[in-house]
Amino acid sequence: MNHPEAAKKFVKDEQRTTWHDQSLWFVRTKRDKSSKSLPEWEELRNMASAIKANVLSHLDEYLEEFERNAQANGVTVHWAKDAEEHNRIVHSILAKHRVKRLVKSKSMLTEECHLNPHLEQQGIEVIDTDLGERIVQLANEPPSHIVMPAIHKKKEEIGELFAKTIGTEPGAKDPQYLTEAARQHLREKFLAADAAITGVNFAIAETGGVVVCTNEGNADMGVHLAPVHIACMGMEKIIPKAEHLGVFLRLLARSATGQPITTYSSHFHKPRAGTEMHIVIVDNGRSEHLGQEDFRRALHCIRCGACMNTCPIYRRSGGHSYGYTVPGPIGSIIAPARNLKANHTLPFASTLCGSCSNVCPVKIDIHDQLYKWRQVIAKKKEVPLSKQLAMKVAGRVFANPGLYRMLGKVGRKVLRLPLKPLIYNPLNTWGKARDLPEAPKQSFREWYLENYPKNGK
Amino acid sequence: MGSREQILARVKKNKPEGMPLPSVKFFEEYASENLVQAFSEVLEGVGGKVVSVSGYAEAKQQILGCYPDKKNVGSSIPELEMGGLTLDAIDDPHALHQLDLMLVKGEVGVAENGAIWVSENSLSHRVSPFITEHLAIVLEKEKLVWNMHQAYSREEVCLEGYGVFIAGPSKTADIEQSLVIGAHGPRSLLVVLI
Predict the structure, then answer these.
(1) To which H or E segment does residue A33 belong?
(2) In chain B, N or C: fewer CB atoms in 10 Å?
(3) Are A107 and A83 in contact (CB under 8 A)?
(4) What is the signed CA dihedral for B56, B61, B63, B66, rounded to 10 degrees?
(5) A313 contacts A350 by C-beta, under 8 angstroms
């Protein structure tokens, strides 16, 4: 995927771009209000970040401890080295139970592994039950945001989609009505399901249990009715102790949507009597990522989405423009760690303003990593030739003060010439969304020497 | 070598140098002086309703007052026999689909976010607080704590089997950020403080 190409398509519709931008900014402001209500917010972020750093530095031990305790609870633990093995394991569990109908609550991991098409090919009906995820599933699209999967869709479009797929009144667009229709539609699916899959927000090494957070209650509806529960987790979801849940649950929802906590924080430790519980621990590139010193902190992520809601690029280019399961700033540092070739445009989808790092509840140095990725990519010559040459020339100029001053003088003169046709032509992509500045009379250096002659050399 | 061993070996090889585990602070100094008031305000802010009563008899009256016409009522609170469904006689949780109102006991309440701990120790069916159309949780006032750190240090919040923090009725804002109460679970939540 090429971010600038995909983003270009999105921004063509100016009204929609503005609407998308404002929807996400609204969520960002709710996060601000909520985080500022806690005087200890910054201390909580520090604590969360330190806990995650400890987790990564003992990850193998915590994983083994988690496995041991989960097994003692009567849970079957599986290990998958990649997406393919994950999908195979899940399918084999479902096949053993002759599962025909499966309900899923939100799991970005199963999106990452493309589980749904794998199961559907083998004749299993897979129903995503989070409303946002159901919407994008019915529309045959991936989620565009990790917390609000259908944030890019307008209610009129959802109304039209529901009319076609689940039989709502044509033309209906009232969110209350559409949600009620989805409730009825999905209630039938819950009651008929043979198995339930959930993601995992936190896996506790000390107790061998997993915590799943939802607002809708869909994870619980699925799990408590079906005879089989499969929880799929990326291996970085581990936290050492139950007491650490206090730290993360205080940060997660406040960062994500501004809520003080999600409606449901469900703690699964043992299967209910007469049923089975499975946990699939997935690597899929994470253990390699762990070895990249500059980039491993991206594995702290708790998937709140705050960096997306604040990002000026995400807000104006939409989640689909990233072409990766996790979009936005965090996705732009995870994706190249997993597959640099496929995702080399993503670290450039940023202004490096640093807002993502400032809102991150686990203090990932997102914008620093974006900058470091750019350097890696430039060294590998994955940037377009025009940019490579321009950077080379700029580097020469900036390294030579005399040349820099001389070109500045020329530039100020040239800017006063009638240049419009030169700038605004199809060959110059820079000119597409930019206007030339007015040329100042003198450079900053000239002004400084004139006004502070004593300080100048 | 199986996947498990491969993964663990790679993690061992690639993990950074040992970092210390910080001790968790409780931030009790920021606690509100009036936990009942703080809890009630937050819970009403997330769409719940809170009433205060003096005992179980009054609790029953309040619940009947809020939900006068509910036919299928389930209760897993021994002190609140509503004469509705006998939950223990039901084997298949799917049968609870008909539940209009469910009464469950809350074990710890958290004032900072309105969350209430409900565990399977006080539920005959795990699905009952979710599948019901409306939910009432009865919670003793003395079970209120200020924040999540304190909640996890309480022995009631024991992580075995199944337990859940519930903060408000089920909801979603997945269609254009419009808040809709009653996504898959209860359409309303009444919390009765005793």
Answers:
(1) helix A14-36
(2) N
(3) no
(4) -160
(5) yes
> What confidence category does residue B47 fall into, taking pLDDT thresholds of 50, 70 and 90?
very high
Q: What is the DSSP letter of A272?
A: P
CA separation, residue A5 to residues A247, A317, A384, B140, B143 (Å)? 40, 10, 13, 59, 56
How close B58 comes to chain A (CA, Å)?
27
- pLDDT tens for each residue of A31-52: 999 999 999 999 999 999 999 9
User: What pairing do the DSSP bridges indicate for beta strands B115-119 and B162-166?
Assistant: antiparallel
B77 touches chain A (CB under 8 A): no
Distance between CA A62 and CA A203 in Å, rounded? 10
How do B108-110 and B115-119 pair as beta strands? Answer: antiparallel
Q: Which amino acid is at A183?
A: R
- B128 vs A406: CA distance, rounded Å: 78
- Cβ contact (<8 Å) for B131 and A225? yes
Burial of B172 (0-12, 13-18, 19+ CB in 10 A): buried
pLDDT (mean) for B170-189: 96
| Predicted pLDDT of residue A457 | 54
Number of neighbours of residue B101 by Cβ within 10 angstroms: 26
Type of residue found at A328: G
CB A376 within 8 A of CB A292: no
Torsion, Cα of A433, A436, A437, A443 (10° steps): 130
Predicted pLDDT of residue A454: 80
Chain A residue nearest residue B168, CA to CA? A263
Beta-sheet strands, E only, within A253-355: 264-268, 276-282
> Burial, A361: exposed, middle or buried (Cβ in 10 Å; 0-12, 13-18, 19+)?
buried
Number of helices (H), then strands (E), in chain A = 22, 10
Give the integer Cα–Cα distance in Å for A76 and A37.
Answer: 41
- Residues of A in Cβ contact (< 8 Å) with B12: 60
Mind listing the pLDDT tens digit for each residue in A134-174?
A: 999 999 999 999 999 999 999 999 999 999 999 999 999 99
Lateral strand order in the sheet of B73-75: B49-52, B188-193, B134-139, B101-105, B73-75
In CATH, the number for domain A38-284 is 3.40.50.10420
Q: How far is B115 from chain A (nearest CA, A)?
A: 8
Residue spans per domain, chain A: 38-284, 389-451
Residue A200 and residue A248 in contact, taking contact as beta carbons nearer than 8 Å: no
Which residues have a Cβ under 8 Å from the Cβ of A170 and sit 6 or more positions away? A160, A163
- Going through B36-187 in order, the beta strands assigned E by DSSP cover 49-52, 73-75, 101-105, 108-110, 115-119, 134-139, 144-145, 162-166, 171-172, 180-181
3-state secondary structure of A233: strand
Q: Is the ipTM of this complex over 0.90?
A: yes
Residue carrying the six token digits 């270009």: A8
